[in-house]
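Record passed on here:
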Amino acid sequence: MKKTFFAASFALLLGVLLSLAPLAASAQCVMCKTQVESARQERDDYDVAGLNKGIVYMMTVPYILMGAVGYFWYRRTHPKPAKK
Protein backbone atom coordinates (compact mmCIF):
# COMPACT_ATOMS: atom_id res chain seq x y z
CA MET A 1 0.00 0.00 0.00
CA LYS A 2 2.84 2.40 0.85
CA LYS A 3 4.57 1.66 -2.45
CA THR A 4 1.40 2.48 -4.40
CA PHE A 5 0.87 5.69 -2.44
CA PHE A 6 4.43 6.88 -3.04
CA ALA A 7 4.25 5.98 -6.74
CA ALA A 8 0.95 7.86 -7.12
CA SER A 9 2.30 10.85 -5.20
CA PHE A 10 5.44 10.94 -7.33
CA ALA A 11 3.41 10.69 -10.54
CA LEU A 12 1.12 13.51 -9.40
CA LEU A 13 4.04 15.74 -8.39
CA LEU A 14 5.83 15.03 -11.67
CA GLY A 15 2.67 15.79 -13.63
CA VAL A 16 2.18 19.12 -11.85
CA LEU A 17 5.81 20.13 -12.37
CA LEU A 18 5.75 19.18 -16.04
CA SER A 19 2.49 21.04 -16.61
CA LEU A 20 3.97 24.21 -15.10
CA ALA A 21 7.22 23.99 -17.09
CA PRO A 22 5.80 25.34 -20.39
CA LEU A 23 4.69 28.51 -18.61
CA ALA A 24 8.28 29.52 -18.00
CA ALA A 25 9.76 28.08 -21.18
CA SER A 26 10.54 30.14 -24.23
CA ALA A 27 10.05 27.49 -26.85
CA GLN A 28 11.42 29.25 -29.88
CA CYS A 29 14.07 27.60 -31.99
CA VAL A 30 16.69 29.70 -33.75
CA MET A 31 14.77 29.82 -37.03
CA CYS A 32 11.51 30.80 -35.33
CA LYS A 33 13.26 33.48 -33.31
CA THR A 34 14.81 34.93 -36.46
CA GLN A 35 11.43 35.03 -38.19
CA VAL A 36 9.78 36.69 -35.20
CA GLU A 37 12.52 39.32 -34.93
CA SER A 38 12.24 40.18 -38.62
CA ALA A 39 8.44 40.39 -38.36
CA ARG A 40 8.76 42.53 -35.25
CA GLN A 41 10.97 44.99 -37.14
CA GLU A 42 8.32 45.29 -39.86
CA ARG A 43 5.44 45.79 -37.43
CA ASP A 44 5.75 47.23 -33.92
CA ASP A 45 2.63 45.55 -32.52
CA TYR A 46 3.64 41.98 -33.41
CA ASP A 47 2.79 39.61 -30.53
CA VAL A 48 4.99 36.51 -30.07
CA ALA A 49 2.91 34.92 -27.29
CA GLY A 50 0.79 33.00 -29.79
CA LEU A 51 3.85 31.57 -31.51
CA ASN A 52 5.32 30.36 -28.21
CA LYS A 53 2.04 28.76 -27.16
CA GLY A 54 1.74 27.01 -30.53
CA ILE A 55 5.26 25.60 -30.28
CA VAL A 56 4.68 24.35 -26.73
CA TYR A 57 1.37 22.80 -27.81
CA MET A 58 3.00 20.98 -30.71
CA MET A 59 5.80 19.83 -28.41
CA THR A 60 3.50 18.34 -25.74
CA VAL A 61 1.24 16.26 -27.99
CA PRO A 62 3.88 13.59 -28.81
CA TYR A 63 4.76 13.24 -25.12
CA ILE A 64 1.11 12.74 -24.20
CA LEU A 65 0.72 10.12 -26.93
CA MET A 66 3.89 8.30 -25.88
CA GLY A 67 2.72 8.34 -22.26
CA ALA A 68 -0.68 6.91 -23.19
CA VAL A 69 0.88 4.14 -25.28
CA GLY A 70 3.33 3.35 -22.46
CA TYR A 71 0.53 3.25 -19.90
CA PHE A 72 -1.62 0.90 -21.94
CA TRP A 73 1.40 -1.29 -22.77
CA TYR A 74 2.26 -1.52 -19.07
CA ARG A 75 -1.32 -2.34 -18.10
CA ARG A 76 -1.50 -5.04 -20.77
CA THR A 77 1.80 -6.72 -19.89
CA HIS A 78 1.40 -6.51 -16.10
CA PRO A 79 -2.02 -7.95 -15.21
CA LYS A 80 -3.53 -7.24 -11.82
CA PRO A 81 -2.87 -9.94 -9.23
CA ALA A 82 -5.84 -12.07 -8.24
CA LYS A 83 -7.60 -10.99 -5.06
CA LYS A 84 -7.22 -13.34 -2.10
Summary: The chain is about 75% helix and 0% strand.
